[in-house]
Amino acid sequence: AWPLLEELHFNKSHMRRHVTSNTFVSLLQRCPCLISVGIAVNWSAIDKRGISPDVPYQGFAHKALSHTFFGNSKISRPTRIAAFISAIAPNMESVEAWDNDLYDDNQDFDKYSLRW
After folding, report:
1. Which of 10, 24, 30, 78 has the fewest beta carbons under 10 Å from its own?
2. pTM, two decimal places
3. How much is the average pLDDT of 82-88?
């Protein structure tokens, strides 16, 4: 069942726990048919060191994923996160985070929504 999932979205309005970027990639590796995913990710490891934008994550690229919602995921360096997402999901069409309807009352909304 898991390998055949095409959509997986956790509760958008209550994303209190964030998975690591490694866990996010692991999910994609185990679900090759995912087209859309909604999950909060702790991007701090990528923010700190980044990756080369032309090198896929350890040789992995998820070809099916085209839509993501990262909830209230915080980022410091948008270019590094964009390079990482582009490397692991080269067919990405939309990336959403910090939805105004869900998080506008969050004290970090203005700071992080602009970075996405």
Report:
1. 30
2. 0.86
3. 90
